[in-house]
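Here is one record:
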Amino acid sequence: MTSAMKLLIVEDDREAAAYVVKGFAEAGHVADHAADGEEGYALASGANYDVLVVDRMLPKLDGLTLIGRLKGEGSKTPVLILSALGQVDDRVQGLRAGGDDYLTKPYAFAELLARVEALSRRGGASAQETVYRIGDLELDRLSHTVTRGGQDVPLQPREFRLLEYLMRNAGQVVTRTMLLENVWDYHFDPQTNVIDVHVSRLRSKIDKGFDKQLLHTVRGAGYMIRDGAR
């Protein structure tokens, strides 16, 4: 369990900020709020925070400039960028500007909490992983490429997002609800086999022709990606 964190939320939408601050408080953490980039910079420079949660589009000082300024001054505090800008180029730009993780709006608070707790555990020692590896399977978040055994594995955007989520949670059971919320942005069950279809397609692309199966179905629970066929 993650110990209590001290967080800074830099978000100009006061209603959205209040929701996030309340959510963190209910989870046992303390969160300060800054309503613009300049206030966020002043607070981040003058206090020790475990993680910063920064919106990209801020008045007075935009989020990426704020992050770049802090990192340029030697700040090691991990930063999660929270933004409605969710295209691949947007995420790449955010990570290259110094962000340690990037979460696109709308989002599930449970995922925001989990990502912030993960950043806090890493303690800002290094940037959020941009390459995930499970056995000989490799996913590069920046170049948006996947290889297995050195061979390119072409994936559709949704398949890539599905694989990224599974690899980020490698060795853990990922439920259908988690996939619906975090890969499809559904907060209800559409009562279709959309997940089964995509998992089947993904499995055929990353496992077919290889001796070791990486993507597993956990009956009655969900799915898991791990290095091993047991």
Remarks:
- The first strand starts at residue 6 and ends at 10.
- The chain has two domains: 6-122, 131-225.
- The domain at 6-122 is CATH 3.40.50.2300 (Rossmann fold).
- The helical segments are 14-26, 37-46, 63-72, 88-96, 109-122, 157-168, 176-182, 194-206.
